[in-house]
Structures
1.
Amino acid sequence: MNGIMTKITLIIGSVAVFSMIISTYFFIFSEGELIAQQRGSISIDRAVALPLTTADGNQVKVVVNYNIEDESLIGQRINAVMGIYDRNNGSLIKLSSFPNGFYVNNTEGTTQLATSLTDPVIQNISAIVTLTSADKSEKYSNDVRADLDLRTILPTTLPPLLEDIFPSQTEESTEENEDSPSSNGVSSE
């Protein structure tokens, strides 16, 4: 009976977190009176989180493919907004977008959004991206979501432990060469 209650509680908690993420997202955009006007669609090409090389933390990158259905936007500046949410509690961690938007030159294309997260407590995130007008007052596309687990990120360099192994091997091989004067490793004794 206890196991069933635990599973039910877990399911209810998961639904509550997902509801909080969605409601938080709509709350943020509704405060700016973001009006939905479907002018295109987007899909995720790839989403990754990589360790920062100059500081502690991770960089989250989301690449989206867009398809602009409203041809009056060609040659115009639009924007893309990425919200990073904590999947454990549904809270908004960070909003990012292009400072000045970007120009749409074709009906189809790709754009990349990136942001840095330096809080080591953050582990499971959702990145939600949408296209907007240049000033972010109108929503132009559907929302896309990518879930990332920051605990699975591998370091970009090998740990310093390996640097300690190589010098000791070099010292050993040097000692062996001193004991063996011949180049083929056969002792002259």
2.
Amino acid sequence: MSDPRAPSLLSPASRRWRALLRLARLLGAVALAALVAGVTWRLATGVRFGRAPEPPRVTHDVVVQQLRDVAKLVSTEMTVRDVVVYEQTRYTATKRALLVVTGRVLAGIDLEKGADVRIDHDARRIAVALPPAEVLSVDIVNVRTYDERAGLLNPWRPADRDEIQRRVREQLVAAAEQSGMLAHADRAAEQVLRTLLARDGYTVEIRRDPVVVAPRR
């Protein structure tokens, strides 16, 4: 067995050649590892060799889901108070009621009434058509009657109570609309949509389509 402490029999040139060979093998292993890592990353991220990565695209389903989220988030609620006067005459007898009503009115966007999404990926533009905001619900919180009269020939009937309820709701809706509630809901929806969708280089165009209301019969 040879003694490791014995002097090497290789010449200085041979030792230098072997050192260079080991260094070349080490550099080759490092380069191969880097190449494998690069290929793996490109395959995982969908990037092809020789081509720049494609910019991210906004899908139709994502925009529709965000529309639904916005419709829930930007609903506007307002407490409204109004005076309702009801009068009805029959057989020269007039019944009358004066009421002070308080209600909560909820306004927002009903996506079932004409919402539409169009995406132009080449122009990086999202066009959204929304119906205008409308009153979605009315919750009557309190009703106080300050004056109520009726005659023998014209007593109060269930139909009168139903008519008063209808008028109360109509006046609460009218009061909420006159306060600018619907315009506020429209602006809030537009602002939130632009914030959510204007990303990845896309511009947002929002259009308001009028709602066709069938005439009452």
